[in-house]
Task: inverse folding
């Protein structure tokens, strides 16, 4: 165990952790954040995705020591129900969820991509999300929402 | 109520009161009498569970607070399918209150009535017709009108209600709010089976695309899944499952983890093994390092020859229909066609592995569970822990989408056993492998179809025979052994008894869609099916499964419909008839005919036989296929057209467009229905193209997303066009499982249309498509 400082959504937290602990457990257990989810623990599904230094990373396979001191953004950090991020707003407007378990990973993956590629086409968005799963298969609506948000973000 | 999570408490407080306090302190409101009984949903187990709020009492369903807020209590839960929104719309509509004034509480054994499982597309039939929640709403409305009539000294017919206020039609200034009328008291009335529901023509909330209130919280990370439930002093558990099916514990070396940080206890109960630690990561490491010696597994039948193996097993036989003349009619037919269809075991493969929290303190237990049957969790957790059922409180919390019996029940047992062992609250989330290798899979199937045609190509006899394995199921009131944890802890699954030959059917039941749509369905001298073919036999053989099985979205119905609807297409092709025309020729149910016609129209269906004329034998070709169903024989109509591209060089299949027409009676929420239709169609596509459970001679080998294949979010998503055939004059039916039921068949038919190759085994992998192309000659 050692003291690890994590900067999450603009706030610093010093936690006493095994440095090998995957970031996801620090976020969801120690900090009790509800955005990032444990889907597979293997980096295969995308449910645990958070953004570090502009990159979408899979927090279930990233040890905390690798991100100590870096700015980490989770779903909670990009908007709230009262002040949603354009992607979150588009998901609400398109009603782009069923169970909603994958949504955090989908939105964070899309955000990291759209931040870098503000004028992405539908086809490019689709390819950017090729490694994310949604087992309710809400893909029609999610891709529509992301494209819509991208157009708004590019304006 | 220390057991409420902060979110649940906030929800109750938002509603104006905590129900128990409210009921204890409040007087009764006597506004008339009613008699009669409403229909409940417990045919399987002979009535609601002990301790359930009485089903026939209005107060079990609806309470009105002094501020006019309405709380409704339901036994049908939100799993992501949108039913909580529809139920709140229903209550708002029947009571003429705004949608946002209704707070719906569902599936908590301390608060809500037992309505059996939330499953089988039964939430609409149970709560939206002249039953249960809908009828409670109508009863409450009539009671409020009678009360206002007394208070204002005018007849009921001179009153009108809107926004939770009853007014005199002739003088709207004479008004009484529901809160004033009820004043925090109970109704103390029976639910009146004759109370008049609001006519669909007057609906202003129900039938509208009301947005789901849970979505803003879901997309901003505020939503509390069961995975987010945190209770004070909570520890974290992890299970250690056997390395092979049928392996048993020989010894456990607790010393192997005693030096690891945070380990609290190693727990062994017969063949159940688990560890409890202070933090999740510590529990995971302890579980992976714990030295357990297991016996060899029981051995599994070969995956490669499993379908042939199924035909040779002792079986429980059943006849759904039998006109007793099928063999003679087939012998006399101008042509007899036969085909065999194969469907693998598939898994629910929930996005999040299953999770539950249990707090067992002495003789009492509270569990937060994503189960589809809270009342059966109550009784089976009690059995597992040796407690009295009345001392077990089960609170539903949403898990990851389940699509049926995923690991929800088994992980609740895991948490309960571990919490009892340490006397503290324990949260368990399964590993990906523990979820996928041990869940109750959707059934494999072998289906033989035979039909006789007359000289004009009309069907004159249809024979269906199937083999399907079973082991365990959803836990019922006394069967914790129906899922793996209960079994490991010493309980048996529900018994399997072979029985052959089958006795003659005594009542028509097409719940599994074993009876094809095109036969008469004659039992007891009455035609009860949807088709015209009089000579019919449907014989099913249920065998014992080496793996756990359980309902997976459209259980049995999808598999049977795949065979029936592809075979119908084969018959049409043999006759050189257009597949839509050929269907209609043998159907007599007007609503099934209507969805077939509507989907053909919407898809701009080109009338001609399949396969498409003059198709090339190489490169990319296109085609279209159709399939239709009356789900469960009485629970929703669906017809679907798939347009596909088949690459004949690689064997890959890409769907360009799905057109779906659904008739589910009066549509409660058109956007919610579309969401279900779209998700069902695409999930059906993934299952048809990719999904198959695999195993070696000891264990399941498809246990993560590299070994169990599914379409990712970013695949080439087809257009999905949904046509909703609204039927305000009919009863509400299920809607969540209709579109998925017809996808595989429509796809198989479209591949045939494009290529002339018939593929009869799911999944339609590129290898199988290429094999079918090679076999077409």
Result:
């Amino acid at each position: 165990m050692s003291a690890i400082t994590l900067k999450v959504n603009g706030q610093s937290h010093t936690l006493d952790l095994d440095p090998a602990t995957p970031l996801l457990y620090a976020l969801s257990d120690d900090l009790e954040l509800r955005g990032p989810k444990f889907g597979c623990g293997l980096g295969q599904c995308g449910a645990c995705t958070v953004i570090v230094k502009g990159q979408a990373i899979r927090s279930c396979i990233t040890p905390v020591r690798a991100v100590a001191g870096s700015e980490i953004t989770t779903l909670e950090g990009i908007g709230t129900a009262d002040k949603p991020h354009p992607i979150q707003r588009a998901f609400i407007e398109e009603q782009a969820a069923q169970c909603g378990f994958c949504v955090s990973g989908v939105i964070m993956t899309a955000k990291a991509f759209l931040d870098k590629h503000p004028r992405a086409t539908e086809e490019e968005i689709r390819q950017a999300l090729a490694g994310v799963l949604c087992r309710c298969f809400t893909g029609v609506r999610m891709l529509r929402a992301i494209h819509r948000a991208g157009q708004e973000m590019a304006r | 109520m220390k057991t409420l999570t902060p979110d649940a408490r906030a929800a109750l407080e938002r509603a104006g009161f905590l129900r128990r306090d409210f009921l204890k302190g409040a007087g009764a409101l006597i506004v008339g009498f009613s008699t009669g009984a409403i229909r409940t949903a417990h045919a399987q187990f002979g009535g609601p569970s002990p301790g359930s709020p009485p089903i026939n009492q209005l107060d079990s369903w609806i309470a009105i607070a002094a501020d006019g807020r309405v709380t409704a209590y339901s036994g049908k839960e939100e799993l992501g399918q949108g039913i909580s929104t529809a139920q709140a719309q229903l209550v708002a509509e029947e009571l003429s209150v705004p949608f946002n004034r209704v707070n719906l509480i569902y599936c908590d054994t301390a608060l809500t009535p037992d309505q059996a499982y939330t499953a089988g597309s039964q939430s609409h039939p149970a709560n939206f017709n002249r039953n249960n929640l809908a009828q409670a709403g109508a009863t409450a409305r009539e009671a409020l009108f009678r009360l206002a009539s007394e208070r204002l000294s005018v007849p009921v017919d001179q009153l009108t209600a809107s926004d939770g206020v009853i007014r005199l039609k002739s003088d709207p200034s004479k008004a009484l709010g529901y809160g004033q009328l009820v004043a925090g008291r109970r109704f103390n009335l029976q639910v009146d089976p004759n109370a008049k529901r609001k006519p669909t023509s007057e609906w202003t909330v129900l039938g509208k695309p009301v947005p789901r209130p849970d979505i803003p919280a879901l997309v901003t990370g505020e939503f509390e899944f069961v995975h987010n439930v945190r209770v004070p002093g909570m520890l974290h558990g992890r299970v250690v499952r056997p390395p092979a099916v049928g392996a048993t514990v020989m010894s456990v070396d607790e010393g192997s983890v005693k030096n690891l940080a945070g380990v609290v206890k190693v727990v062994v109960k017969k063949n159940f093994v688990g560890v409890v630690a202070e933090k999740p990561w510590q529990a995971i490491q302890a579980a992976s390092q714990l030295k357990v010696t297991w016996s060899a597994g029981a051995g599994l039948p070969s995956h490669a020859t499993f379908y042939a193996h199924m035909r040779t097993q002792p079986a429980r036989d059943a006849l759904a229909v039998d006109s007793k003349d099928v063999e003679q009619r087939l012998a006399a037919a101008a042509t007899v066609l036969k085909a065999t269809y194969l469907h693998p075991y598939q898994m629910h493969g929930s996005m999040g592995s299953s999770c539950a929290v249990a707090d067992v303190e002495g003789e009492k237990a509270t569990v937060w569970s994503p189960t589809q049957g809270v009342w059966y969790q109550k009784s089976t957790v009690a059995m597992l822990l040796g407690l009295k059922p009345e001392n077990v409180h089960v609170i539903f919390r949403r898990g990851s989408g389940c699509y049926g019996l995923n690991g929800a029940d088994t992980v609740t047992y895991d948490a309960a056993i571990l919490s009892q062992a340490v006397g503290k609250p324990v949260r368990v989330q399964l590993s990906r492998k523990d979820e996928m290798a041990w869940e109750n899979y959707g059934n494999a199937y072998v289906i033989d179809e035979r039909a006789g045609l007359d000289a004009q190509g009309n069907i004159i006899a249809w024979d269906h025979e199937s083999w399907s394995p079973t082991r365990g199921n959803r836990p019922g009131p006394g069967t914790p052994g129906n899922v793996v944890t209960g079994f490991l802890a010493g309980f048996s699954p529900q018994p399997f008894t072979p029985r052959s030959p089958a006795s003659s059917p005594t009542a028509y039941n097409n719940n599994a869609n074993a009876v094809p749509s095109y036969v008469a369905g004659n039992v007891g001298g009455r035609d009860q099916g949807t088709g015209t073919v009089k000579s019919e036999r449907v014989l099913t053989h249920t065998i014992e499964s080496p793996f756990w099985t359980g309902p997976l979205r459209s259980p049995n119905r999808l598999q049977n419909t795949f065979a029936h609807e592809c075979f119908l297409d084969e018959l049409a092709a043999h006759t050189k008839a257009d597949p839509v025309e050929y269907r209609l020729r043998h159907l007599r149910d007007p609503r099934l005919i209507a969805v077939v016609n509507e989907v053909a129209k919407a898809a701009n269906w080109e009338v001609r036989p399949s396969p498409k004329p003059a198709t090339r034998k190489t490169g990319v070709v296109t085609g279209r296929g159709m399939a239709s169903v009356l789900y469960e024989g009485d629970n929703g109509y669906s017809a679907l057209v798939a347009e596909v591209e088949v690459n004949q060089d690689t064997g890959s299949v890409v769907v360009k467009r799905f057109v779906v027409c659904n008739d589910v009676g009066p549509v409660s929420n058109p956007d919610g229905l579309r969401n279900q239709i779209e998700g069902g169609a695409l999930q059906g596509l993934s299952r048809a193209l990719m999904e198959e459970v695999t195993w070696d001679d000891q264990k399941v080998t498809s246990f993560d997303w590299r070994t169990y294949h599914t379409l990712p979010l970013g695949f080439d998503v087809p257009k999905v066009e949904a046509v909703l055939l609204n039927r305000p004059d009919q009863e509400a039916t299920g809607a969540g499982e209709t579109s998925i039921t017809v996808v595989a068949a429509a796809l198989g038919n479209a591949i045939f249309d494009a290529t002339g190759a018939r593929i009869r085994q799911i999944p339609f992998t590129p290898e199988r498509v290429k094999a079918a192309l090679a076999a077409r000659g």
User: Anything to note?
Assistant: The longest strand of chain A covers residues 2-8. Helices of chain A lie at 23-30, 64-67, 86-94, 103-116, 122-128, 139-154. Chain A has two domains: 2-77, 86-154.
